[in-house]
Each structure stands twice: as structure tokens, then as C-alpha cells.
Amino acid sequence: MFLSRILFHIIAGIVGLWIAIHFIDGVSFSGHLQTLLIMGAVLGIMNAILKPILNLITLPIRLLTLGLSGLIINLVFVWALEIFFPEFQISGLIPLFWTTLVVWAVSIPISLLMRGKI
Question: In the chain, what are the domain boundaries?
């Protein structure tokens, strides 16, 4: 179950990044497909392993902000990809925000599919 959860997060990361690169102005990628797959895998692993830990640590803040602090965690994850992978460039806060929303929007149906609700 845990490995399938990680796999679904990796797939969501890869697909979300691919969509963001192709459809969001200010997001560019100059690397190979293998690098994109590695980036999606890193994002998926961060979402599967680090995000639950950070959600638990920031629970009081999440309650006060009605969950919006979770968006900040996702923004930091996507921003970290830009830092660690020079082939991936996001020019500004607005493209970073939209990229984060795209990755999040892609992960919702995959998460529902994983839980058997679709």
C-alpha cells in the first residue's frame, strides 16, 4: 500500500510538471526527459514522505489558516525543485503558484483513484 501511494505521487508529480512546463508562461525546462522523470519522482517522494510529517508539525497553523498553509508547503516543494534542478526555471511567484496548483490538481484524481473512489 505504501509503495503504491509513493508511485501515485510520483506519477502525479511527473504529469503535473509536464503540464506546467507546456502550458504555464514563465515555466521552462531545458533538460532531457529523464531529468523530468527524476524531478517528478523527487516531487512525488517529497509529497508522499515529507508532506505528512510537515502537515502534522504544522497542524495548529493549518487549523488557523483553514488549510492554506498546506499550499505554502507545496510551493516550497516546487521551489526546491527549481533550486536543485537548474534545467527547470520558474520566473516569478505567479508561475510558481500556478505550477503548484497544477501539480495539486493532477494529484487529486490520482489520489481518488488510489483510494478506489473513482
Answer: 2-115
